[in-house]
Amino acid sequence: DIQMTQSPSTLSASVGDRVTITCRASQSISRWLAWYQQKPGKAPNLLIYKASSLESGVPSRFSGSGSGTEFTLTISSLQPDDFTTYFCQQYSSYPLTFGGGTKVEIK
Amino acid sequence: QLQLQESGPGLVKPSETLSLTCTVSGASISSSGYYWGWIRQPPGKGLEWIGSIYYTGSTYYYNPSLESRVTVSLDTSKNQFSLRLSSVTAADTAVYYCARRPSSGHPDGWGQGTLVTVSS
Lengths: 107, 120
Prior knowledge:
The structure holds 2 protein chains of 2 kinds.
Chain A: E1 4-7, E2 10-13, E3 19-25, E4 33-38, E5 45-49, E6 53-54, E7 62-67, E8 70-75, E9 85-90, E10 97-98, E11 102-106
Parallel strand pairs in A: 2-11
Antiparallel strand pairs in A: 1-3, 3-8, 4-5, 4-9, 5-6, 7-8, 9-10, 9-11
Chain B: E1 3-7, E2 11-12, E3 18-25, E4 34-41, E5 48-54, E6 60-62, E7 70-75, E8 80-85, E9 94-102, E10 109-110, E11 114-118
Parallel strand pairs in B: 2-11
Antiparallel strand pairs in B: 1-3, 3-8, 4-5, 4-9, 5-6, 7-8, 9-10, 9-11
């Protein structure tokens, strides 16, 4: 199985901050990585696919980069609606696996 | 527009079998090139992929940690697919999501999720 290690698990920031979340794969997954945002009581919402492709309708302040084993999700200027939890997921091979999540909190 | 909706009992007794159905609208589960699958999330925890089945019904993948207890199946006549998880324990308490995934891509549609509690 490919293990996905996401960091940090919690991040404290302020509105307007630039934040970066990292996801590391235990082996190369090329660019087969997605990032999701999840709000309490809701299903995950796709932000980024294929490591850096922005899903339609997602604000441009979200961006993704990386390939192989190291990936990042960057929010260029945090907005009030962005304080929630984020997950990465690899879909290079089965079993599909997720990172443990990053909760972005208000500082 | 693709929509997926989970349904099934919200409470299951320990040692019994959890059964959920995902009803798909806006797309046919017989459309070529798609996997239909299940993902779960225990309260306050992360996401765990359970298993997926190809539109043909002949190819499927299960999480090795659950493989001995899981069955995912298609019902093309009703445009639904199902999850069965046997011998459940409290550790199987979770929100269960159904999802669609193109054969070489990311999941592109999720249900809203349904909470299943395992308790006597």
